Amino acid sequence: LFKGKKLPEDPGADTVDFPKRTTPAKGYELLFQPEVVRIYISLLKESKTPAILEASAGAIQNLCAGSWTYGRYIRSALRQEKGLSAVADLLTHDSERVVKAASGALRNLAVDLRNKELIGKHAIPNLVKNLPGGQQTPAKNLSEDTVVSLLSTINEVIADNLEAAKKLRETQGIEKLVLINKSGNRSEREVRAAALVLQTVWGYKELRKPLEKEGWKKSDFQV
Known about the structure:
It is a single chain. This protein has helices at residues 34-46, 50-63, 69-80, 84-89, 96-109, 113-122, 124-129, 144-158, 162-170, 173-182, 188-202, 205-213. The chain is mainly alpha-helical.
């Protein structure tokens, strides 16, 4: 789609400059200019309208998809503009559609290693809170699609990110995942998505002893 120089994926590079333009952006190019990204972020922070929040998070999800050059710039730009927390905050929204859009955006933002670290620290508790089961009242009755989205976001965030996997364990995430897997009342897609997260967790040798101390068995993590 766009020919651009590959950027080094350097988690330490915390500033990013969009490529300098020689001609004004026009047509669909306007969709991914830095000033437009700032508009999405301010909509996320300022708007109270669920449809606008859902659309803004959805736009961010699409712009950050895949490995095209501008996707990488936008993932970094969102972090620089303090947009990650604005997206993560939407996970507590009353509207399920907003929660699902936020989850999708976070999944694509987490492809950036520095974002992944920050999302792991700050968003795992609310991602877990949205999952079915557990002691919370009242439980959110989220659709299969939303639960699967949350689970695949959690998996993206904890992959190659031990700290996030620890956070998942500390926030009662393991109980909820095992429950989705074993309770028999969740769909096949939900069970499969939860199984992937459990396998990722068990892949961390450092976590096995603490998990076994808590009473979990290897079989809980293998489906």
